[in-house]
Amino acid sequence: MFNKYVLSGVLVSALMVGGLSFLNAAPSNNATDMNKQEAFKPSSKADRLKAYAKFTNSVDIIEKAYVDKLTIDQIIDKALDGLLSNLDAHSNYLSAKDFKNLKHTTQGEFSGIGITVGMKDGAITIISPIDGTPASKAGLKAGDIILKINDKSTIDMKLDEAVSLMQGRKGTKVELTIVRSGLDKPLVVKIIRDTIKLESTKVSKIEGTNYAYLRIASFDKNVVPETKKQLKKLGKVDGIVMDLRNNPGGLLEQAVDLTSLFVKHGIVLSERGRNEERKIPVEGDAIFANIPLVVLVNGGSASASEIVAGSLQDNKRAVIIGEKTFGKGSVQQIVPISDTEALKLTVAKYYLPSGRSIQALGITPDIKIAPGVVPQDKDSAFSLKEANLRKHLKNELLEDEAPKKAKATEAKEEKEDKNLITTKDVMDDMQLKTAIDTLKSWNLISAFKH
Predict the structure, then answer these.
(1) Phi, psi of 246 (to 5 degrees)
(2) Which in 13, 38, 160, 231 has the greatest CB count within 10 A?
């Protein structure tokens, strides 16, 4: 039985994002509120029978009179698809193929081009490309609007249909026409489909520091065990940069458990459904609770990513840096209706520890930084220092230490070269540079306190 809470349903190439209206179950003295509650009272048995009769009569008419022959299974599947998609933008019926694909994505492997998409302002929009996938290598970016898939316009196209068109056998080609902010003309991008093996979690050392770089690309089932294993393997560090940029979300329990690695006590989030509220506390040993932490986010950070960033922010545990996040504040539950099919149903909104909702608002970073390279001072290349003078005095301490440092550096770089965030990587990423500088300030202020 596959029954999970999913905060971003990725159906090969799709991210469902949306909201759910909530009826407060608490008593109210407001007459308008009472009238609204009365409007949602359960239907009587007679009303239910009348409604079912209307539906079955409609199915019977379609089966007998529709221009093309349809089996009863085909009609019911189409009815379920229309019913769920009309509830909100994020609930949907999962056919056998869709259900299988969803299970594969949460387990870390699936087929496709490697993007997460959703409906935004009526347009099929890329939420984020997934690291290392054909879409990422082709240069697709968060916020790109898909105008055409091959020769088919996406105007009035359903999200599931768009996802289906982007699927295909490994090695086959798909052509996307996209609109990108800041460009005058649409771009045509040709992508070769491939099997997508997600490396959801990767830990690296940052060159020239004792800081760890924790990249989480999506919240599949491997995030927490890999985070624990790789950070422990790295050894003692003075700070961690957690990178959640372009992370579309994933499994709720992984988001909760990841937060619990860094927060000792408190609430991760609250879920408010139609009839109940559930508070989800931190769980576990919080083995990294005392390590300074900075979190990177952007517009492609959605759902589970926003829970982690927002909870760490509300619990005063981390500094959030980057750009405002996507703003998906709803929870979908996978409810199997047979051995091969399921409903993906919006069942609640989630709220951060402070009580705030991020639905359609997102997380606002503590430090707002736009992406880009670190600006270089062109005049610095022509500035003179004491060491540039022909007969400058030598520093004997530096001379004594130089050979030792050189050998140590060579040995260390040889060992860690494949798993190192280099100085060049940092200088090419202004947001990452800001995160590292923040950790340095954190360590410096902590030293003053002692």
Answers:
(1) 55, 30
(2) 13
